[in-house]
């Protein structure tokens, strides 16, 4: 019964959060802002007001494909947000600018995440081979190696949380201080940013639960 509840949680939690994000984003994609500026204009304005002049802003195909690429110093906004003038577009744009400002300021969590990314990528790619091999062969050594690799991927997700929450906080402050949104529009912007942040929280919760399950398997094998 406990395992059934566990699998229901890890299967439904991310799905429910994604549904909530899409509904929230769709709702506020239809709500314009008093400023009437586009997501691209909001991004450029926020960058300039934070003294960041070496970052480009460009459109990218897809929906919710927005991201900041620190390698070539570019904020990429999905076309709906790049050209859109909605609360959702402005919120997403300033969130991504938040990452660019983090990069420019040398924000510690972002630097740590970037440095740790290759380790986490390796751990995420190969952990399950070791874990599966350890379980099938009843080899605690292989299982332990897999758990360590998987723990590295989980740590990366934990580091990502403060990076994302900080970018959202910065984005909200940019919108308010620069007059991109009015007081009565702040609530919608906050909902969009919170919904996006919840996707990272859900992914982290699932990853931590999986790590704990693997650790319990390891402990059970040692008891046997």
Summarize the structure.
With about 220 residues, the chain is mainly alpha-helical. The protein has helices at about 1-30, 40-50, 80-85, 85-105, 110-135, 140-175, 185-224; strands at about 55-60, 65-70, 75-80. The protein has one domain.
Counting helices, strands and paired strands, the structural category is: mainly alpha
Low-confidence stretches: none
Percentage of β-strand residues: 5-15%
Give the termini separation: 22 Å
Rg estimate, integer Å: 20 Å
Major sheet: 3 strands, mixed
Mean of pLDDT: 93
Q: What sequence of helices (H) and strands (E) makes up the elements?
A: HHEEEHHHHH
For the biggest β-sheet, the strand order reads 1-3-2
Number of domains: 1
Name the helicity range: over 70%
Please tally the helical runs, counting DSSP H or I stretches of 4 or more residues.
Answer: 7
Count the E strands: 3
Q: Sum up the overall morphology in one term.
A: elongated
What characteristics describe this protein?
224 residues; mainly alpha; three-stranded mixed β-sheet; 6% strand
